[in-house]
Amino acid sequence: MSSASGGRRKELKEAREDLHRIIEACKSVEIKGLDPYLIDVEDLIRTIRDYFPMWNDAEDLCLDTEALNSIASVVRMQGEWVKRRATALYRDPFLIEEKIRGLPVDKMAEIFLKVWRPIIELEQLTIKGFREALKYWSDLPPLNLRWQKVGYAKTDMGFVTMEEMVKEGVLSSESFMAEVEKMWLELKNLASKYGRVKYWDFIGSDTYEETVRRAYLTSFLLTYGYARLQVHLLENEIFIMPNEEPLNKGGDEVISFPIPISFEEWERWKKGKEA
Fold first, then answer.
1. What is the mean pLDDT of residues 156-162?
2. What is the pLDDT of residue 250?
């Protein structure tokens, strides 16, 4: 009797563990948003049906009911999955690829000709176009006169001293290097996630005056090796990246990279941030 009782308890334990695994599998599909058809519903229901005669306790019956409810949730998700695919006219890429591979070459060529819409453009020189071109070249002045109209304006580059920046209110009377290091710490904090920050997002502020002040300080961050620029010319984007420690720029060749900080540029940046 004791051996039979022990075997009975072992079977009950294994059956309960199977029901718990069924419940966890169904919940994982719902929580993680997995494909509900990964669950073999028929196999799970067959398992629950086989275990049902074993239950005598209310606790086991509740566990059985919870497992059935979890399977019902998966069936509901399968129905929604089919409905979404049908509404979107979804076609499985694998099935489409297999169908294309199975078509004969002449059938593929026929389909291609039916859907092909080539763009045709005809260019030719007409009498009217020839007259317009002749008039254009006839009205042009000689080359020696055209070259005389090309002029070059030379302007001297200006500079501003630190004292003038303080006097104009762009910089405060606080130690200049202290302000530079404060900007460096701010940059390191902003770039902690992606390792870089868009240049305008770093210098940009609510007022144009503050933006100019930050741009001025940022130029010294770059000059003194606290940070470096990453320029993407094709995308027209500039990023600034902090260095972990200031680099010694004494022996390095310094390359000047001008960045306009005009009022119009600031307005465009501000409108883009508010959009």
1. 57
2. 46
